[in-house]
Design brief:
Layout: H1 8-21, E1 35-39, H2 51-69, E2 73-77, E3 79-80, H3 84-97, E4 100-102, E5 114-116, H4 118-143, E6 153-154, H5 158-173, E7 185-187, E8 192-194, E9 209-214, E10 222-227, E11 238-241, E12 255-258, E13 263-269, E14 281-284, H6 290-299, H7 326-340
Parallel strand pairs: 1-2, 3-6, 4-5, 11-13
Antiparallel strand pairs: 7-8, 9-10, 11-14, 12-13
Length: about 350
């Protein structure tokens, strides 16, 4: 008699086990068939799959199953991604719940916190990877994903790392990629670069400060710039105005003196400057703003990095500001500018 309700747990696991035992998903079953391959976008080992993964993998499964039915030699390559920083943060949060922190060479904020060394921490990360990765594989199997599980890989497998290095070397030798200096997102806590995708964008209520930079050779004349990050003015290497802004037309090509740092910086014409915003003149700090970096490249401006890996001002700042945290440096710069009354 036909059951009134479909009970997936009683049916699907049994059928999937039969499929897998028969080798139905294995690459090479269709001898002589045209190859058809999909490399699964590897899910991060940071937790469990979500609805987006279910949709994405269902679409892939439809494709590979339909191609098998057409007699093609199909490989749906499964794997998981180490997710670097995201995984590290997950493990650090777990440790924090146990009163443990990663030893970064400085005292913990809480005196009761125990420290864990790098080797032990890495061992905890691998332990988490095994647990999370196993959960993800089970979820994919429950979805009925017809991957060739005999070929499962992890993005930190030695073979994959060697392949990545090989490809990068080949691309470099062919002139298709090059090495250059660019701005990055830096995490002063984890001491590592992070991708744009890993940056959490937040809207904050900020403040706009207006500073006057004296024009060199024009006694009593200055150009006013606006900034939300006063501490970065110590790394300014130019001031930009819009080429069509009549207010500054006569200043283009001249230099102004950067207060506190006491350096001469050029005034350049660039459409990045918006005459309708602030004073219409923009301080250019190529070392600490992505837009400024591009302006600096266009005009050959120097790029000065002001911060060390802990986000304290480094040796490129004036002596009185070196080693100071960026937030404290902001207050000191504002106070000094007010004192100078530029």
């Amino acid at each position: 008699m036909l059951e009134k309700f479909y009970r997936p747990k009683e049916v699907e696991e049994k059928i999937y086990s039969r499929w897998e035992a028969s080798g139905a998903f294995a690459c090479g079953r269709q001898a002589g068939g045209d190859p058809y391959t999909i490399v699964i976008p590897p899910p991060n080992v940071t937790g469990s799959l979500h609805l987006g993964h279910a949709l994405n993998n269902t679409l892939q499964d439809i494709l590979v199953r339909s191609q098998r039915m057409r007699g093609r030699d199909v490989l749906w390559q499964p794997g998981m991604d180490h997710a670097g920083i995201a995984t590290q943060m997950v493990v650090e949060r777990q440790l924090a719940e146990e009163g443990i922190a990663l030893d970064r060479g400085r005292p913990p904020a809480d005196a009761d916190t125990r420290l864990i060394g790098r080797d032990d921490f890495v061992a905890r990360v691998w332990k988490w990877k095994e647990r999370s990765g196993g959960s993800i594989v089970n979820q994919l199997r429950r979805l009925g994903a017809s991957c060739d599980w005999s070929r499962e890989r992890f993005t930190m497998d030695e073979g994959l790392s060697a392949a990545v290095r090989k490809v990068f070397v080949e691309l470099y030798r062919k002139g298709l990629i090059y090495k250059d200096k660019r701005l990055i997102n830096w995490d002063p806590k984890l001491h590592t670069a992070i991708s744009d995708l890993e940056v959490e964008q937040r809207e904050l209520t900020g403040k706009l400060w207006y500073f006057r930079y004296p024009i060199e050779g024009m006694e009593g004349q200055s150009i006013t710039v606006a900034t939300t990050r006063p501490e970065t003015m110590l790394g300014d290497t130019g001031v930009a105005v819009h080429p069509a802004d009549a207010r500054y037309r006569d200043l283009i090509g001249k230099h102004c003196r950067l207060p506190i740092a006491n350096r001469l910086i050029p005034i350049v014409a660039d459409e990045y400057a918006d005459p309708e915003k602030g004073s219409g003149a923009v301080k250019i700090t190529p070392g600490h703003d992505f837009n400024d970096f591009e302006v600096g490249r266009r005009h050959g401006l120097d790029t000065i990095n002001l911060f060390d890996e802990d986000a304290n001002l480094n040796e490129n700042a004036p002596p009185a500001y070196r080693g100071i945290d960026r937030v404290k440096a902001r207050d000191l710069v504002v106070a000094e500018m007010e004192r100078l009354e530029f």
